[in-house]
Input
Amino acid sequence: MTTTGFIYDERFLDHNAGRQVYQGEQAHADCGEEFDSPLRLVHTKRLLDALNVTARLAPLDFVAASDEQLLRVHSADYLASLTTRCAAAGDDTIQLGDDARGNHATERTARLAAGAACAAVDAVLQGQVDNVYALIRPSGHHSGRDFAMGYCYYNNAAVAARHAQAMHGLERVAIIDWDVHHGNGTQSLLYSDPSVLFVSLHEEDNYPLEGGSADEAGEGAGLGYTLNLPLPAGTGNQGYLAAFDEIVLPALRQYRPQLILISAGQDANAYDPLGRMRLTRDGYTALAARLKTLAEQVCEGRLVALQEGGYSLPYLPIATLGVIEGLSGQVSDFVDPHHFPARTIAPQERAALDELRRSHAQYWPTLAE
Ligand SMILES: [Zn+2]
Output
């Protein structure tokens, strides 16, 4: 039986991005609380507790990431500036990067999230658990070497990958980023490095508007090891599963990672305010189960899911429940109250997948077969 570890801590709620206020020359508008609300995690944990799911997971301890762990990814100047600016914020929320506001607790909270990601890696590589769901905040995948962006401050997935390499001697790590937004920060950190395969499935023409196309495939020794899969708006369970079965899983089998990290942003769900995709709880269960099976085939089941985005307060908990069900192999008796019409792959999704497979086959011959 699979043992799935779980990380959660109320200190992840301390980071606060404040309210969305648009200030123009002649007018301003207060549009309410930022999408990255602490309630995203509160509601998710509450559903897991109510269904008795948390009790079936193995709680894992962690500490805040050290400077050494963060400096494998970020610059010393950036760490110092983030720390200083948050300390000076007082009771206010301040701008720390594009679409990245924060408060006095943001650096400390981001450091906890990155530390949790490293602890999750330790737990699977030391055999303490088979896989992990880390319900952490803030997210990481838009953050680069010296910038915060898009609700992200430290790049949790990249820090975890580097930790696995530095402390456990791994030569090949894969990051599967299924957040609806392109993982531009992660890509920028790993673009010339063949020792981490970065796969991003995201909605085309969503945030950030620049980047994430299939022809961004890496550079130098890393050419081919960035695998972008921009998908048309409206892609649902069938389209995502086809992308997995036809492209992601064959590439992973060829790469043979020793550890798989998931940048698990569940904002491609059908109710997310910041995405236009149609994944459901069942879709997330199936995607996670596919990766669990593949991990068992190629890397002794070593799989770590790190929370990224997901902004529908009612549906993020249900989508995340689906991921945990896929990782643990235990499906709860919770019935999703939302009804989704049965769909097949739309012609534009089929065409996009065929084009993506052809494009990536130049680096991954298995995709040409
Ligand atoms: Zn996102």
Q: What stands out?
A: The chain has one domain: 4-9+33-368.
